[in-house]
């Protein structure tokens, strides 16, 4: 593996960790709650209808809202960094 591969993998990892909160807020998972009329609101509505009016703990919507409100826990940040590094690695192969 060359220097370019390491550089792109590192850039992908760091970029993904910094981009995750921005992406969560952009789709509507904010620190103030789920934004009205957002993608997150649609997901919450669908989850509530499927669950009899409530959003169950541990579901995708609940986990994403917790991350949007409090930030990503260390394990999730590591996972996001891994995905970003993989994308950078694949980009290096394609170049």
From TrEMBL:
Organism superkingdom: Eukaryota
Q: What membrane topology does this protein have?
A: Multi-pass membrane protein
Q: What is its main location?
A: membrane
- Tell me where it resides: Membrane
Give the UniProt entry's GO cellular component terms: membrane
Q: Does the keyword Transmembrane helix apply?
A: yes
Which keywords describe this protein according to UniProt?
Answer: Membrane, Transmembrane, Transmembrane helix
What InterPro entries is this protein classified in? IFI6/IFI27-like, IFI6/IFI27-like_sf
Give the family this protein belongs to, as stated in its UniProt record.
Answer: Belongs to the IFI6/IFI27 family.
Q: What is this protein called?
A: Interferon alpha-inducible protein 27-like protein 2A
Organism name:
Pagothenia borchgrevinki
């Amino acid at each position: 593996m060359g220097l370019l591969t390491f550089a792109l993998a590192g850039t992908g990892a760091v970029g993904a960790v910094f981009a995750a909160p921005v992406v969560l807020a952009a789709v509507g998972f904010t620190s103030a709650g789920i934004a009205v009329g957002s993608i997150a609101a649609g997901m919450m509505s669908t989850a509530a209808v499927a669950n009899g009016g409530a959003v169950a703990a541990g579901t995708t919507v609940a986990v994403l809202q917790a991350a949007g409100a409090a930030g990503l826990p260390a394990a999730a940040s590591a996972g996001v960094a891994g995905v970003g590094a993989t994308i950078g690695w694949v980009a290096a192969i394609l170049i």
